[in-house]
């Protein structure tokens, strides 16, 4: 096994700003023993011997070469969350969906060259290695900023548990879905520091700051406020918005928001910023939820801290439904493909708890779904060919897809769509009856150019409708971004325009080699066989 090497980071930035640059980043992905929140040492996954993994910065038009060496004793992958990989779906980094994964000891280079800008992140997508630390910010600067500001700060927030993900998961599965979840609640890390020990951010009077928030948490929500300051949301997940005033906002797992903050005109006082962590799977742990953290906005060393009046603690979700996309893209219509998904928790035939979005809990097939789509000829348009455990939906090229996702239960979830952003169209209450109606909301619809994003929040007992255009042939995962829920099966697969995909995509050889090394087939149906012969496919729980 390889030892974690020292930091290997080469950034080749072009001397002239307008030239596209090549950005090389090397990650030696490795195990680490860390004590990140002072509650004891645990096994984690980092890169180059470090946690947190430093943010990656690039400018629109640049190409990022992410060189991965796998020093783990299991496979790994890296996904660039929010990056479209339009025409390069094989670089999406999802194990057994778009690739076979990088075997232990191997190297692989992901190429990330988006015509996109904004706030993204990189994370593991093999099992839930993201929850054990394999995550880092990815910032893509605009070539020409849409809004003027003087400087910017990044807050990459994480939740961190004192036990490894798989240990926690075993406890959850053991306890079952009806019992109480084990009380191993998380703490907040802000830019890698324990919540209340975050370094001050410095403001100069009358300047404007862009502050980016990335929720890289495994499971939990954050609410953010900067009492005493005016905040405007200007970007959500790589989509510029018409500036929208807020005094607080939420970011769920996988979500990102940029705000523009105006500094005060004097340095008479310093201020607090406040970041609250909501423990979604442990909401019953009274006194421990939520957890309040704060840090300093420093105008002048040792200036007194202004005591802002408290902001009402009205835990909601981002006001994306009220917002408008800056580019004015109108509501996509008419809908040509409607997909209704219902969240369910069930004990299935295997006696274990599962979370479902379709008919079955998502489980990996024996052939990555992308390779099935590429090798099954005309049969690739039949969702059955991918195997029932992929919960596949086949979309026609240029379909206007509406997903209506119901959460007739609790807790809240965030769902991430790979390869696209979607328009947020509508929120409302489900028809299911909750014991506590306080979480239900009135129907709210978008008006004007709907805001787009790649990760939605659906609150307990509510539904959400989103729309996107199927204009990027590929195989795109749609899944709950809460690691515990994804592990229990809360995902479906969108196979978009497979016949066009077969004509357009040439998967690089190295991806086939990664499969061969692990004896994973690269052709055939979801079981790796011809036609509808599913011999060898493990039975799916029903
Ligand atoms: C993989 O390495 C980790 C960390 O050293 C160790 O805890 C684990 O038992 C190893 N697993 C296998 C299958 O060797
Ligand atoms: C992986 O890359 C490192 C340098 O980053 C090199 O030393 C090593 O030989 C490579 N390993 C394989 C299996 O290609
Ligand atoms: C962080 O500090 C604030 C202010 O001292 C305190 O109220 C809060 O409880 C602390 N948070 C945690 C999780 O310890
Ligand atoms: C922000 O946090 C500080 C320190 O914990 C606390 O004193 C203050 O009341 C909080 N402000 C708001 C508006 O919640
Ligand atoms: C709830 O039920 C009513 C009456 O059956 C129906 O019209 C409506 O579409 C349902 N709403 C949702 C969100 O399913
Ligand atoms: C919630 O709504 C249902 C249906 O309208 C009603 O029967 C129930 O009493 C309500 N529960 C509470 C706690 O208000
Ligand atoms: C993908 O590329 C095609 C062709 O350039 C373009 O029409 C489409 O809008 C793109 N879709 C996404 C999601 O990037
Ligand atoms: C189905 O696939 C299995 C495994 O590849 C193979 O052994 C078997 O002959 C196939 N059955 C038919 C009817 O082709
Ligand atoms: Cu979930």
UniProtKB/TrEMBL annotation:
Q: Which UniProt keywords apply?
A: Copper, Metal-binding, Oxidoreductase, Signal
Q: Plastocyanin-like domain: which residues?
A: 33-144, 152-276, 365-498
Q: Which residues form the signal peptide?
A: 1-20
Cite a single Pfam family from the UniProt record.
Cu-oxidase_3
Q: Which domain of life is it from?
A: Eukaryota
Sequence similarity:
Belongs to the multicopper oxidase family.
**UniProt protein name:** Ferroxidase fet3
Q: What is the lineage of its organism?
A: Eukaryota, Fungi, Fungi incertae sedis, Zoopagomycota, Kickxellomycotina
Gene assigned in the entry = FET3_6
């Amino acid at each position: 096994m390889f030892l974690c090497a020292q930091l290997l980071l080469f950034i080749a930035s072009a001397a002239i700003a307008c030239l596209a640059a090549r950005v090389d980043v090397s990650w030696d992905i490795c195990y680490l023993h860390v004590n990140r929140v002072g509650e004891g040492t645990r096994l984690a996954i980092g890169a180059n011997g470090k946690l947190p993994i430093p943010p990656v910065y690039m400018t629109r038009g640049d190409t990022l070469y992410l060189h991965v060496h796998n020093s783990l004793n299991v496979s790994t992958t890296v996904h660039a969350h929010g990056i479209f990989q339009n025409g390069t779906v094989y670089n999406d980094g999802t194990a057994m969906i778009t690739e076979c994964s990088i075997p232990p000891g191997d190297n692989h280079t992901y190429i990330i060259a988006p015509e996109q800008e904004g706030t993204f992140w990189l994370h593991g997508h093999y099992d839930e290695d993201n929850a054990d630390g394999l995550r880092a910010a990815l910032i893509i600067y605009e070539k020409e900023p849409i809004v003027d500001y003087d400087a910017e700060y990044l807050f990459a927030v994480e939740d961190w548990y004192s036990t490894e993900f798989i240990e926690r998961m075993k406890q959850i599965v053991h306890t079952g879905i009806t019992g109480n979840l084990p009380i191993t609640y998380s703490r907040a890390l802000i830019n890698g520091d324990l919540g209340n020990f975050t370094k001050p951010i410095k403001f100069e009077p009358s300047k404007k700051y862009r502050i980016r928030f990335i929720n890289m948490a495994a499971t939990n929500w954050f609410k953010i406020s900067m009492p005493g300051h005016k905040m405007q949301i200007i970007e959500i997940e790589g989509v510029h918005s018409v500036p929208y005033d807020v005094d607080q906002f939420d970011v769920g797992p996988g979500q990102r928001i940029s705000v523009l903050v105006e500094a005060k005109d004097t340095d008479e006082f310093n201020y607090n910023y406040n970041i609250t962590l909501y423990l979604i799977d442990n909401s019953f742990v009274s006194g421990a939820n939520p957890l309040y953290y704060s840090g300093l906005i420093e105008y002048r060393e040792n200036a007194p801290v202004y005591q802002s009046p408290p902001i009402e603690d009205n835990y909601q979700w981002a006001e994306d439904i009220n917002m408008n996309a800056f580019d004015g893209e109108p509501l996509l219509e008419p809908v040509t493909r409607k997909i209704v998904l219902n969240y369910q928790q069930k004990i299935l035939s295997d006696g274990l708890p599962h979370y479902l979005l379709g008919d079955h809990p998502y489980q990996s097939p024996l052939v990555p779904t992308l390779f099935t789509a590429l090798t099954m000829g005309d049969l690739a348009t039949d969702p059955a060919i991918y195997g029932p455990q992929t919960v596949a939906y086949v979309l026609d090229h240029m379909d206007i897809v509406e997903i209506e996702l119901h959460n007739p239960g609790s807790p809240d979830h965030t769902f991430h769509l790979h390869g696209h952003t979607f328009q947020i169209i509508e929120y409302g209450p489900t028809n299911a009856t909750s014991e506590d109606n306080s979480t239900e909301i009135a129907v709210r619809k978008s008006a004007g150019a709907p805001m787009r994003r790649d990760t939605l929040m659906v609150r307990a007992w509510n539904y959400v409708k989103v729309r996107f255009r199927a204009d990027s042939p590929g195989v795109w995962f749609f899944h709950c971004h809460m690691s515990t829920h994804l592990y229990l099966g809360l995902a479906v697969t969108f196979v978009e325009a497979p016949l066009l995909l077969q004509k357009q995509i040439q998967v690089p050889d190295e991806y086939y080699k990664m499969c061969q090394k692990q004896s994973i087939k690269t052709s055939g149906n979801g079981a790796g066989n011809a036609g509808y012969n599913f011999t060898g496919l493990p039975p799916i729980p029903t």
